[in-house]
C-alpha cells in the first residue's frame, strides 16, 4: 500500500495544485511537529506529571490546567524560530506574541487553542489542539504587527486545522481545497494520510449540545432541540441521537466522519456574552474545516466566516456540521 506522509502531501499540493506556498508548508510542518510533542505529553498522563491544575487563570477567567500552559509553550517555542510568522495569539495569552528579534520574521499570523477540552484532561477523554493561519495583510516589513492585524474575518484564513489526541492521534487540515486527515504512526513518528477527502454527510439524526443549559437558551434554540427530541411523533418525523464529549475537537471530529450538528448557543445567564466559544481560534478554524467538508457553520444567525472580529478573545455562538440541520436552526433564529 502506498503511504503518503504529511511532508509528501504538502509538497505535492505545492507542486501539482499550487495551493500551498512553500512558507505555509513549512509553517504547517512545524505546527504538526508541535502537535506531535503535545500528543506525546498527553499520552504520558500521570506518569509525566502533566495532569492537574495550576494556580493561574487565563484572560477569560478559566483556571489553567498544567497541559493548557505546557501545550501553549510547546507551540510558541516550536513556531518562534521557523521564520514564517509575524506573530502568534492563543487562548492562554492575553495579548499577541511577536516573534523575537533574534529570529527571522515572516508574513503569517498563527492563532491557536493549545489544548481544547481542558475538562477532559484528567479523565483520559479525547482532547485536541485547534489552529488558524492568517496573513498579515497590510503589514509593512520592519514594523511590528499589532492585535489589529489579527482581526480579520475567518474567510481570510489561508489554513486551519486541529489535532485530536484520542485512541489515535490525528491531524485534520484544510487550505481551502478540501479537508485531509492524517493519522500519527507512533512507531515511525510520521503523519500518514488516511482520510484523503473528508465530506460531512448532508443528512443526520445526531446532535451535540450541552443539554444541561436548555432552560437558559433562546426560544428558537429550544424549538430546534424540542422538535428533535419529539422524535417520530414530532415535526421532524425521525428519532435523534445525542452525543456530547465536551471537547469541541472530538465532537467536530465525530461530525466530520459520520455527520451531525455541534451547537454551543448563547445563554441567558450571561446576556452580554454572545456565546462560550472563542471566534478566532475555535469557531473560525472549525467553521473553515466544516465548510470545506461540505457542511455549514453559523452563529445561529449568520455565517461564522463572514463575522468581523473586534477583539482577539471575542466569543461567539456556534452551530456547525451537516448543512440541512445548521440551515434549519439558523432559519428558526432568523424568523424569531
Ligand atoms: P477549552 O478547554 O479550550 O477552554 O474549550 C472548552 C470548550 C469546548 O471544547 C467544549 O465544547 C466546551 O468548552 C465544553 O463546554 P461544557 O463545559 O459546557 O460541556
Ligand atoms: Mn480554556
Ligand atoms: Mn477550546
Ligand atoms: Mn483550550
TrEMBL record:
One of its GO terms (biological process) is fructose metabolic process. Pfam families: FBPase (PF00316), FBPase_C (PF18913). Substrate binds at residues 116-119, 210, 276. The lineage of its organism: Bacteria, Pseudomonadati, Pseudomonadota, Betaproteobacteria, Burkholderiales. Mg(2+) 1 binds at residues 91, 113, 115. It is found in: Cytoplasm. Keywords: Carbohydrate metabolism, Cytoplasm, Hydrolase, Magnesium, Metal-binding. PANTHER family: FRUCTOSE-1,6-BISPHOSPHATASE-RELATED, SEDOHEPTULOSE-1,7-BISPHOSPHATASE, CHLOROPLASTIC. This is Fructose-1,6-bisphosphatase class 1. Its cofactor is Mg(2+). It comes from Pigmentiphaga aceris. CDD domains: FBPase (cd00354). Binds 2 magnesium ions per subunit. Residues 200-333 form the Fructose-1-6-bisphosphatase class 1 C-terminal domain. NCBIfam families: PRK09293.1-1, PRK09293.1-3, PRK09293.1-4.
